[in-house]
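Hi everyone,

Forwarding the result from last night's run.
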Amino acid sequence: MGSWLDAKAAGGIWKLRIDDLDPPRVAPGCIDSILHSLEGHGLHWDGQPQYQSNCFERYQEVLEQLTHAGHVYFCNCSRKDWQHSEIYPGTCRPLQHSTGRGLRFKSLDGTIAWEDRSFGTTQIDVSSQVGDFLLKNAHGIFSYQLANAIDDCDMGITDVVRGADLLTVTAAHISLQRALQAKPLRYRHLPLALTSEGEKISKATHAPAAAAEDAPDTLKRAFHHLGLGVIPLDDVHHMLDEAVSKWSVGR
């Protein structure tokens, strides 16, 4: 909702991307369910949806480009090997393996800083908060970080609006953009919707799906969460129009 409002209030377009990087794990019918839910809540996207499962050749091409430029190394570690560390400790970086279970990005030391449109100046320490993240795992699956960074560039994205839980991930995306000499993006991270216990509302916390028949009430609660105050229940499109008029594009 926040990203849709931000795009429309700025007179921009809103792109839809389906993160189906691991097709065998995509539950039958789930993508159609997402599309129908968005439509039921009046959140219509511009152009055709982009499916990441159609972009594997492009991801491999960029991965090879990064490898040749010295930004990538082979890693033979499993998650169990560093289960007591919050981030990957760089075990394989100095070993210079010629093959490996996965491929990791060789992160630079220091901080990644950007002007977040909600949080202002934001700094993430790469060594302690990001580390050398995976680009392709042992099963040949491209990482979320690699795919999203490439897609943002290829799709001409100018602004990314998403939840505050992805602040650290943003530092990884910016690292990749710099390695690819891509044009910088603008970011705006929004507050998460939480349960009464302080957990993110999601499938993991068994939150029910947003039903299209309850769209006006769901929109009303979402608008309130995003700081737009009370927007009376009405036709979905009328509610969205009022929300756009109240939305502050900010910096």
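Residues 168 and 224 are 26 Å apart (CA to CA).

Cheers,
N.
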